[in-house]
Amino acid sequence: MTESYQANRGTIFVEDAQIISVQEYPGEQFVIRLNSPRCAARATAGSFVHIQCDEAIPMRRPLSIMRANATEGWTEVLFKIVGDGLRALSRKQPGDEASVIGPIGHGFTPARQRPRTLLIGGGVGIPPMIYLAEVLKDDSHWQPLVIMGSEIPFPFEATPSSIETPWLSPQTNSTMPLVEKWGIPGRLATLQGYPGCHAGYVTDLAREWLSSLPAGELNEVSVFSCGPTPMLEAVAKLASEFNIPCQVSLEEFMACAVGGCAGCAVPVQTDQGPAMKRVCVDGPVFDAATVFAR
Known about the structure:
By secondary structure, the chain is of the alpha/beta class.
């Protein structure tokens, strides 16, 4: 791997990352592992990279970091082919290089007084939830529950879970193998009739779990979510209904991804009133109540 990094605000680096592995999943979905030690050393759950898909395509693509290993120096991203850029990226092979800017953005910040963490990911919003789950598993203080939804095949081979969820029908027992390996309860939702999955929305599953909790336990819950905007709005509404804090990671089109162009700005409620905030460097994680104000 050759490297020509430049620090941006001391936390963002440019690396010529060598591709370690490429895994393809149904629905034109790919997981790529990158040898990017400076990015891996500073990545947090919720941060992302801005990756050059091909030398002939000048515009980079923002991709959420799904996993990172600071010791081994790698990061992983998951993406679905949308457009020529990501199609070009999907054709890369182990040993190829891709210029990566990262890690970018503010990630999720769980509060220790709320150890019951509900992680909700939808579609290409699944990666930050996997990353957050992996971080939380290393501290027994946390009690995470992972709910994932997709209307195309999941980017993994779903497996029946042996971890009990007494608040849920035993017929809904599919989960992600990696989450199961970590000993974290997880369940899947879809409208596509995949075996073992809840036939409905992720918010349906979340509501069942939240409704099963006594008041004392409900006061220990916080919600973290990433996915399509309509899903995030529904999650924010559910969290508001149960009066629990919720953080959401927004997905927006980006040009520079480092705060210069302001092309990803969204309206956010602040203590001083409405303001435009850049998803790339002010986010991508925001307090759901400030984005989906009621």
